[in-house]
Amino acid sequence: MLVLGMDTSSPAVSVAVVELLPGPTWGRSARWRVVDGGKHGELLATGIASVLREVAARPADLGAVAVGLGPGPFTGLRVGVMTAAATADALGIPVYGVCSLDAVTDWEEHDTPRLVVTDARRKEVYWAEYAADDERVAGPSVMRPDALKAALDETGWTGRVVGAGAQLHGFAGAGEPLHPDAEQVVLLAARRALDGAPGEVLTPLYLRRPDATPPGQPKRATP
Fold first, then answer.
1. 39 CB burial (10 A radius; 0-12, 13-18, 19+)
2. What CATH number does domain 106-175 carry, 3.10.310.40, 3.30.420.40, 3.40.50.2300, 3.40.640.10?
3. CA dist., res. 17 & res. 3, Å (int)
4. What is the bridge-based pairing of β-strands 160-162 and 114-121?
5. How would you class 54 by CB atoms within 10 Å of its CB: exposed for 0-12, middle for 13-18, buried for 19 or more?
6. Where are the alpha helices (DSSP H) in 6-66?
7. Cβ neighbours of residue 104 under 8 Å, at least 6 residues apart?
8. What is the chain's pLDDT, residue by residue, as a tens digit (223 residues)?
9. Which of 141, 74, 137, 68 is nearest to 99 (CA)?
10. Could you tell me the CA-to-CA distances from 61 to 17, 88, 94 in Å, in that order?
C-alpha cells in the first residue's frame, strides 16, 4: 500500500510517500522537504508531485494519506490538514492524523527520554515529552520557554532535547532533528493503514487562538 504523508506544522514543508508492507520493512519510498515558513501553500503541491514522480506513482495508486495535526501556527498547519483531507476525499481513501511532535525523531537508536520543543511564535514553544521507548508521556502543550526551562531544572531533566524551538531559545544541549518528518508521519499511521482502519475526522492541534483575528467594529467618524 502506498501512503502519502505530509506535515506543514513548522517552517519545514515535509512530504513523503512510503510503500507499506505487512512485515517490519517497507518498499518504495521518497522524501521531499523545503524549509520556508512563508510558502506552505505554494510548496506543498510541488512536494507531492515530486515524491510521486520519484516512485513512479500516480495519485490513483495511493491507498491512504497521513498528516501531521500539529501543534503548529494556524496558517501553515491548516495548509497540510486541508490538503490531506481534500486529497483523501477526492481519491476515496482514508486519511489519518498524527501529532506532529511525535514525528520529530531521528532514525538512530537511543535509550534515553527526549523532549521535543518547537517554535510556537509569540515568544512561546510547543513541547512534548517522550519515554525511552518513544511513548509520549506528557504534552503536547504550549508555554513560555523560560517556564519550560525552569521546569526542566526543577525536575533534573537528563534526556535529549531536540527541535527548532529548543535551538532558537537556547535550551541546554539542544540538538537535531529540528522539524517533523513526513516519512515518520506515515510510519506513525502505518498500523491503522495496514489494518484498513476507517479514515478520521482531522482535528488540528492549535492549542491556542490563531495569530490573526477578525477586526472589531469600525469607529464612528461622526457623532
1. middle
2. 3.30.420.40
3. 6
4. parallel
5. middle
6. 40-54
7. 116, 118, 162, 163, 177, 178, 179, 180, 181, 184
8. 999 999 999 999 999 999 999 877 889 999 999 998 778 989 999 999 999 999 999 999 999 999 999 999 898 999 999 999 999 999 999 999 999 999 998 877 788 999 999 999 989 999 999 999 999 999 999 999 999 999 999 999 889 999 999 999 999 989 999 999 999 999 999 999 999 999 999 999 999 765 444 444 554 555 5
9. 68
10. 11, 12, 13
Q: What angle do CA 215, 216, 218 make, to 5 degrees?
A: 105
Q: Write out the three cell numbers for 10.
A: 513548522
pLDDT one-digit tens code per residue, 16-62: 999 999 877 889 999 999 998 778 989 999 999 999 999 999 999 99
* The domain over range 2-102+179-194 is classified in CATH as 3.30.420.40: yes
Question: Taking CA 106 as the corner, what is the angle to CA 29 and CA 186, rounded to the nearest 5 degrees?
Answer: 40
Domain spans of the chain? 2-102+179-194, 106-175
Q: All 3 cell numbers of residue 208?
A: 491556542
Conformation bin of residue 192: beta by default, left when phi > 0, alpha when psi is -120 to 50: alpha
